[in-house]
Amino acid sequence: MTNQPNGTLYVGTTTNLARRVWEHREGVVDGFTKRYGLTRLVYAERHDDILVAKQREMNIKHWSRAWKVRLILKENLNWDDLYDKIL
Fold this sequence. Notes:
By secondary structure, this protein is mostly helical. Helix content is about 50%, strand content about 0%.
């Protein structure tokens, strides 16, 4: 999640991506994403095993910002909001 191209980045894991992105967009849960207005889904990965997903989240969180930006740009060059594509 981000607030704009090259803006603040948030990485998280969920079992229901559409619901969780909606919560971020609507600001219904207090926290980091609400505080920084992170409403744009710019990258997502699907994993069948929640433990694998959590490990991937932890790995990505430890990467540098430059690496995260390259990951986004590889799949989403224009930083388009992907929310409508996951519905």
